[in-house]
């Protein structure tokens, strides 16, 4: 949807004297009035006060403003206030732009920055909202306590179906978030059901590794922890010794289970209970209290150091070890039953479900990639969520926090409808060749091919991005060979407009890493970015070859791509796609002797020093190479 009558209001805020220390706003206003296309402009000492806000609201009505540019400092509180005011006056939040002038120190630089934002506002299409019918029902997959807990929590607000994936199995999933069609197999018969969201709560399964206990095999007197718990025998008058630390070293599940079992045993008349450990872990809520209570109840806590020896016989088992706080070489503990902790591994159905649901697994075969952007509950597909130990053993508070997060996420569908901004990429059917490039490259399974006479091309078909499944990364737009796809807020027109008159160095920066690093870097070395222009993109996967070439053609001496670290892209493989495009651009530039003008940098949001080091390195490379001889002088 395009606004033909664009009426922009510009507010130049001195931010209580912060901006005027470096820039004369009156001169900026005069220059803008002589150059720019807008409806209204005004200076103010502070525009965030109540009286000023009321004045802005009246001016929106008086001048029929439908887009706003707020120029001043960068305060999130002020940003929220203006967005709220704009929406109350019928102006979409995506038609409000903010520009920070606090670090700008010349009228010319301020005017250039304002003109750039105005140009983007003129190019930007109107963003609307869609109200979609969705299914409130949630499918929870899992048979254990974790699945029961999350299903119970969700059921307070919306319908839940829980299956164990053993007697009733998922054999196929179609559709998109809000309206997944799930095929279930039970007693040889397949049925179809609609769910808005899918929650995986399979838990983890224990696995005994004899190698960690010197090759000791389990028997009647030497048990694994899961065998002991599941046996549910009467141990009154018996001595039980638990061994912790050799297995399940990275979680608290075994420690929690042993503390609980120790207290139960003491309450049911066990003659003696030992917990033999190398490093006692009680850092979760409630575990330290259970540890202290177990000591008061008479549970023995014995620390071992290094290697040990286990011997099992028909009447009991012994554990021989070195006690680090005693002068003797070996300590021997005899018990009626010796209980050994196990490792935890993904349940057998994990890989099968990952393939059916088209979600990615991570290290060790667990659900969820080892990626900070997915933690704690998200997968690469919207509204297919994880809770509990299916993505690595967790305990206590961590589990409850995940359950709360899942409940909050799926509650978006509880009323049977969802309102979302129309920010998914647009496809121009005339240019769409239905080549399936976008369909194949989307990491979120968000694209379908639709058919109909309204699609004006030889196939009467085109790609369409589902508004609930699409994560607005722009990878599809960057990959489309026919340039049929444009991403709202980051269209090719808008991005290329920013490099119409580029700085000495142009840096295309992922908003999740490079851009945040650049903001941090400013605080470390404010002067370094004077000759640097940051062009923010939603994901480095949106960076097109043409963006790199146009920046150089228009006069930049060098171009940088600031992307997430490997295996840590919020959109799975956007940084890999960006690297491939950088290689394509460099291959073209190599043919004309300009291949050293592009630099690819992995940087995290908190790596301001690394950002500055990369900029200095690029500046030095340009200094040695000289001015870009390939730029087109106009």
Explain the overall architecture.
With 634 residues, this protein is of the alpha/beta class. The chain has 5 domains: 1-127, Rossmann fold (3-Layer(aba) Sandwich); 138-203 and 347-413, FAD/NAD(P)-binding domain (3-Layer(bba) Sandwich); 206-345, 3-Layer(bba) Sandwich (FAD/NAD(P)-binding domain), CATH 3.50.50; 422-486, Alpha-Beta Plaits (2-Layer Sandwich), CATH 3.30.70; 491-634, Response regulator (Rossmann fold, 3-Layer(aba) Sandwich), CATH 3.40.50.2300. Helices cover 30% and strands 24% of the residues. The protein is built from 17 helices and 31 strands. The protein has a 5-stranded parallel sheet with strand order 13-20-14-15-16. A 4-stranded parallel sheet has the order 2-1-3-4, with helices on both faces. Helix 14 (514-524) crosses helix 17 (608-625) and helix 15 (545-553) crosses helix 16. The longest helix is centred in the C-terminal third of the chain and has 18 residues, at 608-625. The chain is elongated and about 95 Å long.
Question: Characteristics of this structure?
Answer:
five-stranded parallel β-sheet; four-stranded parallel β-sheet; FAD/NAD(P)-binding domain; alpha/beta; 30% helix; Rossmann fold; 5 domains; 31 strands; 17 helices; 634 residues
